């Protein structure tokens, strides 16, 4: 288990460096890293510090956040199909972000953007927990997710279409599929602090999620407070998914694929799966973000396209397994 | 059954044309009397060349001072939003559309018996001259067109700078840049700048990764104008890396959008 | 005194399910909770633990959550295992209320002892979900034992088990009682309840109809009132056999 964590951490570190060294400009590696660390004159330090570094940091943070919330939601809902992107939480966050942008709130105060996305995510996850809950079956969960996703997607498209801005309408793809292209340190500053707070909240539910393995009543009898767990989970998820979506759009399937792959490696214990999924999510998103830059270097291929190509078949496989009655 | 439906539709269309379009039956050689322009760029040329009363309507975009250098004059015409129905009801004998007018609208108008001419966008100065001539011919105003062309040639010669002004980049929302084969690229060239897009083999308008722009380190940065409301596509123009390249970039405007004689103003704005 | 309920009443969906139940459990007792379906047995246990809203008093529900979890272990009727965890990890979940949370040396000792007591050593590393129903049940009881509490509350612990497993389970509970712990278990099989429990509580229509030694509770008139049946009691060398008629 310890080996797994070390291997994952090493993988994340390596991918972080590769992400820093990947880009259309094809810069020499040593010069790039020196410019990143030491600065200096000319355009190279600007490229490394202002363009590639924020992209790599956001890839790591957003991926870790999505992996972590995926594992936590699965643990709480006791369902391997739960995932912030699929069940509409990211979509609701995108709706909040779009509303903040189009009403001009994000111009008044920069924090309004992640905040509005956070409110959207919180509404989405609260609605979902109310509808599905730890006792809800897969069908309830997926149907609730489909409804919330549809509502959020329609709301986002409506707000963007009503915008007086000629570019807004074409941005639906960004909000639905997500991208890390040309994000700046401003985005890092807006998103990472609330995400760190959210991660702390979500990680504080580890023991409670372990106890939920035995069912809700047994977990309560083990001293787990249902309302406190629910509150921490909803708030933590919103704090992570909201700001992540506000800066990177809705990226699906990371929170589904990563916990599923890592679950057997951590003995299926939610408490161990949470940090492992955070590392795994960071690795997956960094790798995806490197891949979109290598596959079509001169176009902004959306990250969600890649994660969905990997994740959707797995999702179908999971539905197939739950359908035939087997647990995952 | 199907044939029946088709026939009845054809009869209906014929009846509509006969009832509503007496002007359309006039000879093609005569100057059109009720002209409708559906495109921001043809709007401007038509307003400059049409005889009084000849032009009935221009697109509603022509009234927008952010887009149109002739917004004041456009206010004198009936605006249209480019839908076949409203244009048909204006009973035009000539409709001037652009390449990007929805084909369904153009088809619909043609089926209803309206003459529709499509003007492609002018991407360089020669194309502007051709466009002026063509518009003059369409409107039956060749003398006016000749005058306008002569004035444009003189203006352009005065605005052009032959000396090397350095390297410049055009960077707009969503990270798009314009190469030398575009109108903006022509304006840049006429102002004496070398376009960095050419360094990366870009000739048309396409996305340029921001790090390539930063690495090219241009002397001058020209960014797209900002629109009301916000968009992520425009947010890229606030990126700190751009500010590091060029703290106060020049902003393009309405003179950069259409291939009309107003481009000479855009050239002068780069002085 | 391990548990004191006084005047406990529960209303569910505006329908009263328990009326003024008072009950006190002492160390060393194996109390069988009997009564027809819908008598309020599960509600009584959940209310005693403070898992559902109630009026009246429960000494257990008054405790802070962690203290309560160190005082009473609960085996719900639904035997749920959500994830394919190993048997050892499953049993260790019982240590959640304790300071180490399952990872300290003390926790390991308690977990190992519970596994050994339930004869689960061969299954330690096996995935709990792949075990048979009876084995899963043993693993879940081991989880409750690892919690190391003076009181064990079990809701229909022998339902769905084969006769050998039923006997093993009730024998274990009797043993726990003889060690000084207290067990409260709802049981439908009157014969087994009569054989293993030290005391019976007969619940019907949300009231305690009778509470006391086996013979005092399994009286014909009480059973007729509670279940609407009569029983034939046959004394055997191995204890009384009870046949419902």
Give the overall average pLDDT of chain C: 93
CATH class label of the largest domain in chain C: Alpha Beta
- Taken in chain order, the helices and strands of chain A follow as HHHHHHHHHHHHHHH
Number of strands of chain A: 0
Count of DSSP strands of chain C:
11
N-to-C span of chain C: 37 Å
Number of helices of chain C: 9
Low-confidence stretches of chain A: none
Let me know the largest β-sheet of chain C.
6 strands, mixed
Question: What is the 3D form of chain C?
Answer: globular
CATH homologous superfamily annotation of the largest domain in chain C = P-loop containing nucleotide triphosphate hydrolases
Q: What is the CATH homology-level superfamily of chain A?
A: ABC transporter involved in vitamin B12 uptake, BtuC
* CATH class group of chain A: Mainly Alpha
- CATH topology-level name of chain A: ABC transporter involved in vitamin B12 uptake, BtuC
The major sheet of chain A is characterized as: none
How far apart, in Å, are the first and last alpha carbons of chain A? 20 Å
Amount of beta strand of chain A = under 5%
Low-confidence stretches of chain C: none
Q: Mind telling me the C-alpha Rg of chain C? A: 18 Å
Radius of gyration of chain A: 19 Å
């Amino acid at each position: 288990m310890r080996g797994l964590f070390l291997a994952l951490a090493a993988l994340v570190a390596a991918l972080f460096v590769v992400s820093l060294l990947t880009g259309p400009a094809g810069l020499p590696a040593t010069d790039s890293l020196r410019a990143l660390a030491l600065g200096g004159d000319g355009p190279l330090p600007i490229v490394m510090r202002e363009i590639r570094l924020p992209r790599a940091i956001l890839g790591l943070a957003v991926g870790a956040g999505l992996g972590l919330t995926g594992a936590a939601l699965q643990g709480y809902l006791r369902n391997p199909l739960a995932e912030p992107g699929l069940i509409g939480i990211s979509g609701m966050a995108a709706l909040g972000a779009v509303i903040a942008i189009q009403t001009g709130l994000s111009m008044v105060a920069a924090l309004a953007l992640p905040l509005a996305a956070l409110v959207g995510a919180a509404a989405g996850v609260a609605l979902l927990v109310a509808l599905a809950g730890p006792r809800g079956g897969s069908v309830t969960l997926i149907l609730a997710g489909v409804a919330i996703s549809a509502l959020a997607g329609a709301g986002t498209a409506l707000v963007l279409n009503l915008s007086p801005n000629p570019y807004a309408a074409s941005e639906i793809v960004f909000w639905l599929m997500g991208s890390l292209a040309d994000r700046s340190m401003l985005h890092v500053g807006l998103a990472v602090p609330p995400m760190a707070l959210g991660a702390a909240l979500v990680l504080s539910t580890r023991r409670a999620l372990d106890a939920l393995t035995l069912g809700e009543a047994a977990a309560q009898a083990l001293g787990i407070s249902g309302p406190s767990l629910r509150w921490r989970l909803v708030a933590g998820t919103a704090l992570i998914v909201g700001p992540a979506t506000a800066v990177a759009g809705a990226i699906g399937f990371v929170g589904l694929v990563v916990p599923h792959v890592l679950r057997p490696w951590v003995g299926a214990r939610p408490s161990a799966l949470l940090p492992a999924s955070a590392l795994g999510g960071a690795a997956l998103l960094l790798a995806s973000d490197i891949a979109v830059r290598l596959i079509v270097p001169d176009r902004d291929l959306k990250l969600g396209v890649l994660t969905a190509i990997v994740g959707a078949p797995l999702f179908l496989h999971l539905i197939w397994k739950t359908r035939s009655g087997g647990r995952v | 059954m199907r044939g029946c439906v088709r026939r009845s539709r054809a009869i209906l269309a014929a009846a509509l044309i006969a009832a509503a379009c007496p002007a359309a039956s006039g000879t093609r050689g005569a100057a059109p009397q009720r002209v409708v322009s559906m495109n921001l760029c043809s709007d401007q040329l038509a307003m400059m060349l049409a005889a009084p009363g000849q032009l009935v309507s221009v697109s509603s975009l022509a009234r927008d001072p952010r887009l149109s250098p002739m917004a004041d004059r456009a206010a004198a015409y009936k605006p249209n939003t480019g839908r076949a129905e409203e244009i048909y009801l204006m009973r035009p004998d000539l409709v001037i559309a652009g390449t990007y007018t929805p084909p369904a609208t153009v088809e619909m108008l043609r089926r209803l018996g309206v003459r529709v001419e499509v003007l492609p966008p002018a991407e360089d100065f020669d194309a502007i001259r051709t466009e002026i001539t063509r518009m003059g011919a369409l409107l039956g105003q060749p003398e006016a067109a000749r005058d306008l062309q002569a004035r444009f040639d003189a203006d352009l010669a005065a605005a052009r700078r032959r000396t090397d002004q350095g390297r410049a980049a055009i960077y707009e929302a969503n990270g798009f840049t314009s190469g030398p084969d575009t109108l903006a690229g022509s304006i840049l060239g006429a102002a004496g700048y070398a376009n960095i897009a050419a360094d990366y083999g870009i000739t048309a308008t396409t996305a340029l990764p921001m790090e390539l722009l930063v690495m090219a380190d241009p002397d001058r940065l020209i960014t797209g104008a900002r629109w009301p409301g916000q968009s992520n596509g425009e947010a890229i123009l606030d990126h700190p890396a751009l500010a590091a390249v060029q703290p106060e970039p020049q902003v393009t405007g309405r003179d950069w959008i259409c291939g009309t004689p107003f481009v000479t103003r855009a050239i002068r704005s780069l002085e | 005194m391990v548990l004191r309920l006084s005047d406990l009443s529960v209303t569910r969906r505006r329908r009263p399910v328990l009326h003024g139940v008072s009950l006190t459990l002492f160390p060393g007792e194996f109390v069988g909770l009997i009564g027809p379906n819908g008598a309020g047995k599960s509600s009584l246990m959940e209310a005693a633990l403070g898992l559902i809203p109630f009026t009246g008093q429960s000494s257990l529900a008054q405790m802070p959550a962690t203290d309560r979890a160190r005082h009473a272990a609960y085996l719900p009727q639904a035997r749920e295992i959500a994830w394919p965890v190993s048997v050892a990890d499953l049993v260790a979940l019982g240590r959640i209320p304790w300071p180490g949370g399952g990872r300290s040396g003390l926790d390991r000792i308690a977990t190992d002892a519970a596994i050994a007591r339930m004869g689960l050593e061969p299954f330690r590393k096996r995935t709990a979900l792949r075990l048979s129903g009876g084995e899963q049940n043993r693993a879940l009881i081991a989880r409750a034992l690892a919690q190391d509490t003076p009181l064990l509350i079990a809701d229909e612990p022998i339902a769905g088990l084969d006769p050998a497993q039923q006997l093993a389970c009730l024998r274990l509970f009797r043993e726990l009682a003889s060690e000084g712990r207290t067990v409260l278990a709802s049981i439908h099989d009157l014969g087994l309840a009569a054989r293993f429990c030290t005391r019976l509580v007969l619940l019907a229509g949300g009231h305690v109809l009778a509470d006391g030694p086996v013979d005092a509770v399994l009286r014909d008139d009480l059973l007729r009132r509670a279940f609407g049946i009569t029983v034939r009691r046959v004394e055997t060398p191995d204890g009384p056999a009870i046949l419902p008629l």
